[in-house]
Amino acid sequence: MGDATTENYKPEWLELEKALGTRPLLVGDSANIEAQFNSLVTALNTQRPPPDTSIHTRDTSADGIPIRIYTPPDTSQNGELPLGVYFHGGGYCVGNLDSEDMWCRYIAKSVPCVIVSVQYRLGPVFKIPVMLEDSVRAFEWAFKHASELNSSPSKLFTIGGSAGGGLALTVAHDLIAKGKGSQIKGIVAMVPVAAHPSSIPASYENYYRSYEENAHDVPVIDADTMDTFFGAVGADPQDPRVCM
């Protein structure tokens, strides 16, 4: 690994690559990627601290959709805590309630807020817009049951990273389109999948260069991985249920 491939990475990440013995990259078809992803999560978990057990968790379902509820130890804001509906990343094809468990615990304690993490159905078995439909149903369940979760129905927000960040945006868009925009008070979209590379108007291409800049020799997900994810879920580049 030469300087050209290391100079833009923090030392902590390079130490992790050294511990793993490689720069991880998800390659192949969706089945291969799922197996590689699960192995990577297992390896990464060995580098992480133990889960914060001060956070109370409960696995249940929201209108038939598996969810995990995280409640922070500080309940001084009884009934007034913000409530974040969390969507995990993974290209709409991989990931589950466990893959970002530590991050959900951190958010719940640090904000503090209640987090409802959503296990939406995944590709390639299911196609767009199933992921969005599951996520919207889970959000509406959270809105309806906010008071029971020691949170305020006036403080709901969507949150997620990567594909989950895309869902944080498209769930809000869907609610607004249905006249339910008042249910959502905020969006936390972390490195979201917000645009398909072929959906960018020519006049804006110079502003949206991440697919080109990260096409090759990057950790975990490159351009080929993204193409596999999009293809597995039948993503239409012009569909606002996929890209904003």
UniProtKB/TrEMBL annotation:
Gene3D superfamilies with a match to the protein in the record: alpha/beta hydrolase (3.40.50.1820)
Domain of life: Eukaryota
Organism: Botrytis porri
Domain Alpha/beta hydrolase fold-3: 85-242
Pfam families listed in its UniProt record: Abhydrolase_3 (PF07859)
This protein's name: Alpha/beta hydrolase fold-3 domain-containing protein
Gene Ontology molecular-function annotations: hydrolase activity
Family matches, as InterPro entries: AB_hydrolase_3 (IPR013094), AB_hydrolase_fold (IPR029058), Carboxylest/Gibb_receptor (IPR050466)
